[in-house]
Write a structure and sequence with these properties.
By secondary structure, this protein is of the alpha/beta class. It has two domains: 203 residues, 2-Layer Sandwich (Nucleotidyltransferase, domain 5), CATH 3.30.420; 183 residues, 2-Layer Sandwich (Nucleotidyltransferase, domain 5), CATH 3.30.420.40. Strands 1, 2, 3, 4, 5, 6 and 12 form a seven-stranded mixed β-sheet that branches. A hairpin with a 2-residue loop joins strand 7 and strand 8. The longest helix has 25 residues.
Length: 398
């Protein structure tokens, strides 16, 4: 047996594993690094978050990514060279973080790397019937493995699509394994660049679980802030939006896109919800608004589309609690908007059920890596994939 296969076999048979989850989202804030101790697999999984950090991306790093991010036309040469470069940069970030935690790379069994999404193309977003859903994340797993000396599992979303899904949202797996409850119906809402939620019925089986994207999370607000406020990458605690007034006509135009009439579950990305999308709505309106009013309206747009998706998929007769994670939960105006739109529903941070709200997605990918080596194939709630599946490609360090 090849030594790498022997190492993987040994790891798969351990009662618990040390796995690093890496997540770099569409908001491009930085690399989330979560070192997890994971025991068991499947419904017997338990996770302890040993260490967590977000390594902020430098302006130069963001600029390089934005040159090829979510655009119809880019430099193929730039895409080609960025694939290994991002991985090598992520490997350095992992090694620096391990050093700061006094953890040796030899103590870590696996790295689970989401990579950097460059383009997400669900079938609903492109008109060519010859092609199906596709997605592209870059940050080559081989370079992370060789750069850290740790077996790396990456490129998770491709298997989800190959098995009949749309490559997103993948949160359903981690939400089901970690957050299901015997007596409480739960909604796990993540507000990143795009917002998504998972519904976990009390005592529910996986085929009763439901997960979907809802539309924009922070992506439009972040993009507008970056363009119109020099040196600021996002509207911290809605400082800008709180100075503005919601403009109803613009809000209604933003909500008219056909995406919102598509059946659930569905996925989307900043390929649709970008500044061009906003500009088209403003042109139809024919009125110039202040930056503050636009930000207030975008904030409400995110809140209303999240609330509508939850209300459309969960009967009003069901009692449930919403647990929120992701960067959007730190936006007090966004949370106030959600509370006003869902007045009879309890909304709390995911920390209330033991999930670090900023680390949640990185933990998710550590869980997916654990399932890839030690679990068994799972259906994504009977909604996303047609066959049970596990995800991720394995890269050995030598």
């Amino acid at each position: 047996m090849h030594p790498n296969i022997q190492d993987l076999y040994t790891i798969a048979n351990k009662p618990s594993r040390k796995i690093i989850g890496l997540m770099s989202g569409t908001s491009l804030d930085g690399l989330d690094i979560a070192l997890c101790s994971i025991t068991g697999a499947g419904v017997q999984t338990s996770v302890v978050l040993d260490h967590f950090t977000t390594v902020a991306y430098s302006p130069a790093f963001k600029e390089k990514v934005l040159s090829i991010f979510s655009k119809q036309n880019i430099s193929l040469a730039q895409l080609c060279v960025m694939h290994p470069w991002i991985a090598s940069e992520h490997a350095k970030m992992v090694k620096d973080s391990l050093s700061s935690w006094n953890v040796q790379p030899t103590e870590v069994d696996l790295i689970a790397s989401h990579g950097q999404t460059i383009f997400h193309a669900p079938k609903s977003l492109h008109p060519n019937d010859e092609f199906g859903t596709a997605t592209l994340q870059i940050g080559d797993g081989d370079h992370i493995a060789t750069g850290t000396g740790i077996i790396t599992i990456s490129d998770f979303r491709q298997k989800h699509i190959a098995a009949g899904g749309e490559g997103a949202p993948l949160a359903i797996y981690g939400d089901y394994l970690l957050c299901s409850h015997a007596t409480e119906n739960r909604v796990l809402l993540n507000i990143g660049g795009i917002a998504n939620f998972t519904y976990l019925p009390a005592n529910g089986k996986l085929n009763q679980v439901f997960s979907t994207d809802t539309g924009p999370g922070n992506t439009l607000m972040d993009a507008y802030t970056r363009k119109h406020f020099e040196g600021i990458s996002y509207d911290k605690d809605a400082h800008i939006a709180k100075q503005g007034t919601i403009h109803r006509e613009l809000l209604d135009l933003l909500k008219k896109d056909s995406f919102f009439s598509l059946p659930f579950p569905k996925t989307i990305g900043p390929e649709l919800f970008n500044l061009e999308y906003l500009n088209e709505a403003q042109l139809k309106m024919g009125i110039v608004l202040s930056d503050q009013d636009i930000m207030a309206t975008l904030n409400r747009f995110t809140a209303e589309t999240i609330a509508a998706a939850i209300q459309n998929n969960l009967p009003s007769t069901i009692s449930f609690t919403i647990y929120v994670s992701g960067g959007g939960m730190h936006n007090s105006l966004l949370m106030a908007n959600l509370n006003s739109l869902l007045p009879n529903i309890s909304i709390a941070s995911s920390i209330e059920i033991g999930i670090h709200p900023d680390a949640k997605e990185a933990i998710l990918f550590a869980l997916l890596a654990n399932e890839a080596v030690a679990g068994s194939p799972l259906l994504a709630g009977g909604h996303s994939t047609k066959v049970p599946t596990t995800m991720g490609k394995i890269s050995f360090p030598h």
